[in-house]
Amino acid sequence: MDEPRQPTSELTPPTPAPTSRAPAIWIRLLAYGAVILLVIFMLLPVKRTAREAARRNSCLNNLKQIGLGLSNYEAAHGAYPPAYTVDADGRPLHSWRTLILPYMEQNPLYQSIDLTKPWDDPANEHAYNAMPEVYGCPSDPTANADKRLTTYLAVVTLDSAIRTADSLSYAETPAPSETLLVIDAAPSQATHWMSPVDADEKLLLNVDPKLKRQHNGDLCLAAYADGHAYPHSGEIDATALRAMITASADDNDVLQEVD
Q: What is the pLDDT of residue 201?
């Protein structure tokens, strides 16, 4: 006689092996990384622009200090300094940058200079290697590589306020707010801070924009006879620029016609 059959329970299907979550985690991490990189790349131009804006403001402050030094010199001597001093034979000795040192709280450096000997004479080695920070444009790669170089050049022409001899007084510049004294030239025009080298009419009126631009998009930063400093954007009409580099009574009329 057959044994009775035991009741059977329903078979339980086998539990599937857990699926690995590693691929999903890596995909999520890669997505997060891509977002972070995108944000960084978007912020980089903003950061560069902010840095350049800070450097430009610092440059403008330098020019204002230089303009103040020139104004203080003019008040003490009755005229702006000559572009450079000369020896008995008419050879250049020292730049206006040296002459205004006492009027920019740099008297100890000024006192260390032998004004009877050329700027690059061994007797002036200390000052030769000690350019005041105010003469260095923070955006100039040349000056940043050599802390003795400057791009701050005086406007020196036959009709400018600062001349090789017999510079004008403030009273002799009828349109001081439109009369350029000092410009921030292009890096290619950098010169030693004590050197009697400046910007003549040929350089100022040169049509090559690479010779005129130091800061992004600006023709140049400049200091005026009335003490203000201003950045020029874009190209300036040659007629207007010529009026700005001369100390002429009709400068305002010319500039108004150009505007």
A: 87
